[in-house]
């Protein structure tokens, strides 16, 4: 949801400044897919315990 009007604009500006000040305005690093592996189940249900 996005707001409209002067209050929404003011809040959006304050959030943008806080994100920049805290270093949260950068994007995320790319996902490393080499860390994923298939389970060894060979089609059977794996045990929970």
Radius of gyration: 22 Å
Number of helices: 1
State the order of secondary-structure elements, H for helix, E for strand.
H
* Beta-strand content estimate: under 5%
Specify the helix fraction band. 25-40%
- Main sheet: strands, sense, barrel: none
The number of strands is: 0
Give the helix/strand class: mainly alpha
Short recap of the structure:
With 49 residues, the chain is mostly helical.
Walk me through this protein's architecture.
- With 49 residues, this protein is an all-alpha fold.
- It is 35% helix and 0% strand.
- The protein is built from one helix and no strands.
- The protein has one helix at 6-22.
- The chain is elongated, with a radius of gyration of 22 Å.
- The mean pLDDT is 84.
């Amino acid at each position: 949801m996005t707001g409209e009007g002067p209050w929404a604009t003011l809040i959006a500006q304050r959030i943008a400044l806080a994100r920049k000040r805290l270093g949260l305005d950068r994007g995320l690093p790319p996902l490393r897919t080499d860390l994923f592996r298939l389970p060894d189940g060979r089609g059977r249900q794996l045990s929970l315990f």
